[in-house]
Amino acid sequence: MNLNQWRDRLHKTAWDKGWHDKPRNYGEVLCLIHCEVSELMEAFRKGTLDDPCDKNNGLTCEQEEVADILIRVLDLAGSRGIDVERAVALKAEYNDGRAYRHGGLKA
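Structure (tokenized):
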């Protein structure tokens, strides 16, 4: 599947599972993405990135949290009608032409 197909599948699943029953403002959706990033950071902090995740689905903590981040982002893209394939392709092309560290930015 391409990114837009994943976007549509994941957005539909979120609807089907009740995650869109109540309207959410944009800030709340961004906070949900941030929560997933924070869970990944917590696994890093605890040294459990490579441990099996708690859902016994064959994923490590790191793999599961990265997947959760992508799922939340693609659900947002689905709710906003963002053409993810186009956006990623254009941004990647732009980044390809940028200077090393954008011309001197620190890490």
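The two ends are 33 Å apart (CA to CA). The mean pLDDT is 96.
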